[in-house]
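Feature request disguised as a bug report, sorry. It would help if multi-protein outputs had a clear separator. Right now it looks like this:
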Amino acid sequence: MNDKFKDLIKLIPNPTKNDQATILADAIDYINELQRTVAELNCLAEKKRNAKEKRLKSTKIEPDDAGHEDGVALRTSRLHKKFKNIEIDVRIIDDEVTVKLVQQKKINCLVHVSKVLDELHLDLHHVAGAVIGDYHSFLFNSKICEGSVVYATALANKLIEAVDQQYAATKSSC
């Protein structure tokens, strides 16, 4: 039984404690979070599909067998990255960007991340945040501005760099 709990704790990002009750509670919370993320992404993809279908009907362009309109595919990318005290999940679907950032509670990086999104010409639509145990968790929903090109890897690296610089500045001022 203990081996199964050890395996389970390895699957949970940022577990709070090692007792069995907390491991199960963390696992349930994580599963619920994953289910919400899946539902959110399914809803977002469905909205995109419906918008494209509506656009196709109004312009009389029929999608090909792969769902492309005139050979243009729906742009999607996803990246999950961990670095020191930071965990970032970036999802791009067409022109919408969702960033989930989890960091240790030493600093609040909300302003710094918002500045990075602005520098990359991302139009911030929604921000949600929470404190879970010793961690800050933020969710940023934004749109890629017309003419801007953003890749998940570049965005994640830029965010990690900004938060890491803030950690360094905090340590040096102490």
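(second protein starts here, but nothing in the output says so)
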Amino acid sequence: MQGFTELIEICKITSLPIPLSLVRSSYFPNETELSAIENHVIESKQAISFLEEKLSYIRKFSAFRHSLTAPIRKLPNDVLSKIFLRVCERGVGIGMRNGQI
């Protein structure tokens, strides 16, 4: 009986109009109905794909917006230039010796 309950829940979520009496019967969909179900599945997968692409875009845009508010962006260019010049002069960093890479 667990399988029937799960099927009913799936039908509620997906808005499929399948009455409980039909689920409990030994009814099996004909070719036309199977085709309609397959089309519904294809359309649903396309909608999911579209929404996943939108979500990916929103996440990338959010990361971009977050990077715009990073504290380093608030420093004036002359201060940033001085910092980077000092780092280059000192050879601080991975693989750097005497200003060489």
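Even a blank line would do. Unrelated, but nice: Residues 34 and 40 are 10 Å apart (CA to CA).
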